Automatic annotation (TrEMBL):
Superkingdom as given in the UniProt entry: Bacteria
Organism encoding this protein: Williamsia marianensis
Cofactor: FAD
Residues in FAD dependent oxidoreductase domain copies: 9-348
InterPro entries in the cross-refs: FAD-dep_OxRdtase, FAD/NAD-bd_sf, MTOX
Segments forming a coiled coil: none
Keyword Oxidoreductase assigned: yes
Full protein name: Sarcosine oxidase
Keywords: FAD, Flavoprotein, Oxidoreductase
Length: 368
């Protein structure tokens, strides 16, 4: 063990939003933390200038967790001194959105309502004429992703270790060894939330995670009217504009609008993107949707984003935490909005020595 270079109470593998949220919660509980990532904080699956915070989910348990997460986002905004979610709300179009209203209204802290045509035009002036079902969630908004990543990373007592972790190895009562490219360290506990790399690290300790890895692409589009006082998120499941599963959220200062179409692109046997044309084609589809549905945006794509997606078999919002002794492994998809709750839960799992029942794989949290 003479080669060991560093140690702390807990190692967190992955400096995306969940890893940083976990490190923040662990530090607040009084534990020392070392965060590892092969790239800068907020790369990988957390990349981009905005994300949607939404309350609506198929699984009512995720709705409850979203209420809790919204409270934590507000608390963290105050503690970290920066706005982390906009106050602009979120609009959802289509019959599915309308059918979720009663569930949302049954929860405290979710002011949601059906919109008339006039209200929709007033709240979402960038949208083309539309006369179908529309729902407004006042407490939803655009997550300020880069502000969140930056504030959480800056709160760390020690900087992120920029190195690629190859293995995590249980050492019994001696803790857990983390072996990276140029560093070996021992920690009391390890939390793995490393996006696409989670499956490989978990397999090394005997955990077989049922994760499917696919690819995705989205883009941002310039807002034509720079004087808008508010710009809500958009979820369009209506099909009126020739696409369904469309999502979008404004950048800070409402200068641009990040938008994508919820399509997962297949990978090949070695783990790369199966069709190299598919990422560009998905961005083109997003631009075509903008041209049809959102005349308040310039349809020329800005800053395309390409990333990996890790989904569990029970749903697109599925999430779970596995445990092997002092190692805790999280996997799932659409995690950004719930990140404060996931970070707090992982921190509590470490201090308690066990994963809460709700977050265990057999609970199939986030199932549709």
């Amino acid at each position: 063990m003479g080669e060991v270079h560093s140690t702390s109470d807990v190692a967190v593998i992955g400096a995306g939003i969940v890893g940083l949220s976990t490190a923040y919660a662990l530090q607040r509980s009084g534990l020392s933390v070392t965060v590892y990532d092969s790239g800068p904080p907020g790369g990988g699956q957390s990349v981009g200038a905005s994300r949607l915070f939404r309350h609506a989910h198929d699984d009512p348990r995720m709705v409850d967790l979203a209420v809790e997460a919204r409270t934590l986002w507000d608390r963290w905004s105050a503690d970290l001194g920066t706005e982390l979610i906009s106050a602009d709300g979120s609009i959802a179009l289509g019959e599915v959105a309308a059918g979720r209203v009663d569930t949302l209204r049954s929860r405290p802290g979710i002011p949601v309502r059906h919109l008339s045509g006039d209200e929709l035009r007033s709240l979402m002036p960038i949208l083309a004429p539309y006369d179908g079902p529309a729902v407004f969630d006042e407490r939803a908004g655009a997550i300020r992703t880069q502000a969140a990543i930056g504030a959480l990373a800056n709160s760390l007592a020690t900087p992120v270790v920029t190195d690629h972790v190859l293995t995590v190895r249980p050492l019994g009562d001696a803790g857990v060894e983390v072996r990276a490219g140029s560093n070996v360290s021992v920690h009391g506990d390890v939390v793995v939330c490393a996006g696409r790399g989670t499956v490989q690290l978990a397999a090394g300790i005997g955990l077989s995670l049922p994760v499917t890895v696919t690819a995705h692409a989205r883009a941002s589009f310039r807002v034509r009217d720079g004087s808008l006082a508010a710009l809500p998120n958009l979820q369009d499941g209506s099909g009126v504009f020739e696409e369904a599963g469309v999502y979008g959220a404004a950048h800070p200062y409402r200068s641009a609008f990040g938008l994508g179409i919820a399509r997962e692109l297949e990978t090949n046997e070695p783990g790369g993107v199966a069709d190299p044309n598919s990422l560009a084609e998905l961005v083109d589809r997003a631009a075509a949707y903008v041209a049809r549905a959102l005349p308040g945006l310039d349809p020329e794509p800005l800053r395309p984003i390409s990333c990996w997606i890790t989904t569990l078999p029970w749903g697109d919002d599925g999430v779970a935490i596995w445990q092997a002794d002092h190692i805790f492994v999280l996997a799932g998809h659409n995690l950004f909005k719930h990140a404060p709750v996931l970070g707090e839960t992982l921190a509590q799992s470490v201090t308690a020595g066990s994963v809460p029942e709700l977050f265990r794989p057999e609970s199939m949290l986030g199932g549709g």
